[in-house]
Amino acid sequence: MNKKKILVFNWKMNPSSKKEALKLFTALKKSAAWALKKGLKLDFILSPPAVYLDAINQKNKNTKIILSGQDTFYKGSGSVTGGISYAMIKDLGAKMSIVGHWERRSLFGESNKDVSEKIKVLLGNKMKAIVCVGEENRDQRGHFADFLEKQIRESLAGVEKFQLKDVILAYEPVWAIGAGARQPVVEEVEQSLVLIRKILKKIFGEDSKKIKLLYGGSVGESNIQELSEILQLDGFLLGRASLNPDTFEAVLKSFSD
């Protein structure tokens, strides 16, 4: 592993209690310390449910783990029942937030414009944005390429070139997400990342190189080492693999082999 890799641990709506969350965090902290002691070039980002951010932040002293929100509303405050603002998660220790995850787009009807507004408010308030993009189907005619370009253009609309260093783009093809999903072929992922790099260059020119690219979707100990060899890849967004200490420990050990 030549260049430093980013690992984002997205717990989604798990676990079901603060006690379990702190136990899982303790396991992650131990694994991260082991990996860094081994000299592995890794950045650790943890994205727990917002209700656990404060408790985890209190236990996150003197570690290399960066905290992230799973989502944020695009206003700092106001009459938004159930909303969680960037200011709230920032106050609880988060340095960034995931936005535009497929589950937010599909279950909550979020549009590319909604995602764009969230990105702008994060970047405008000195936070980073982990922006999720990905096609629902990978057709043989290549229409997914047009879908990806539209999604990326509209989601990153309004982002200035000087802000690109604070943008992390996570490619998560919908067809590869979740239990029972088809495991992606490495060549498919590589093709998509090359395509995304070309799209970003069309939009931002050479400055697009400042954007980090992650992959998420059926990533685990069986394929992470092979996927990590993809030249365009800067790291991974882990879902199910982030919830099992044995699994993410095995993932980290695969980097050391």
Any overview of this molecule?
The chain contains nine helices and eight strands. With 257 residues, the chain is of the alpha/beta class. It has a single domain (5-256), classed as TIM Barrel. An eight-stranded parallel barrel has the order 1-2-3-4-5-6-7-8, surrounded by four helices. Helix 8 (224-227) links the parallel strand 7 and strand 8. The protein is globular, with a radius of gyration of 17 Å. It starts with a strand and ends with a helix.
Structure, briefly:
This protein has 257 residues and is α/β, with parallel strands linked by helices.
List the helices and strands and how they pair.
Layout: E1 5-10, H1 18-37, E2 42-47, H2 53-58, E3 65-69, H3 86-91, E4 96-99, H4 102-107, H5 112-123, E5 128-133, H6 143-155, E6 167-171, H7 186-204, E7 212-215, H8 224-227, E8 235-238, H9 245-256
Parallel strand pairs: 1-2, 1-8, 2-3, 3-4, 4-5, 5-6, 6-7, 7-8
Going by CATH, the architecture would be: Alpha-Beta Barrel
CATH topology: TIM Barrel
**What class do helices, strands and sheet pairing give?**
alpha/beta
CATH class: Alpha Beta
Question: Beta fraction of the residues?
Answer: 15-25%
Summed over residues and divided by their number, the pLDDT gives a mean of: 93
- The total domain count is 1
Overall shape: it is globular
Low-confidence stretches: none
Give the biggest beta sheet.
8 strands, parallel, barrel
**Can you count the helices?**
9
CATH superfamily: Aldolase class I
